[in-house]
Amino acid sequence: WIHSTARVTTPGRALAVALDGDLLAVACGEAGLLLVDVRDPAHPVTAPPIALPGFARDVALQDGKAFVAARAAGLHVVDASSRTIRAIDTPGLASAVALDSGFAFVADNEAGLAVVDVRDPEASVLVASVDMPAPATGVAVRGDWAYVTRLGGGLFVFDISDPAAPVPALTI
Asked: Cα separations (Å) of 152 from 13, 16, 69, 79?
């Protein structure tokens, strides 16, 4: 049996969730980003939602920073403690985000895969964009490989051993 110990009401549709230590982030579409302290899961503490330009579709967390795929508004880097927001324009509609080794890999819809160097979140910069024959809808990263789903089905695998120059390796 699963027993619910607490409930958190989100300001909009809860579209994606990410957890890093005791910090939980929820992408809430047009309502922005919700940050929740889950040190005590039975008594989560929510901060006021953070309004973001665009539509918060997906979120990843790392080192107190939330990386939000915000469709036409690109990728947002939100500092959880100061609540400051840095926007990085991507060529398409940022739909999903995954983090690895100081880079954010963004499923950028019709623009394919976008790669943002976030090693210094305050100076994040787009370093690559790779077209795909169908819109990119999701992304996962492990080691030197990025796995990107596409609209209409299928999966693209990219060699990202050099994140600034992703190379298509396989289509499934």
From this structure: 24, 21, 21, 35
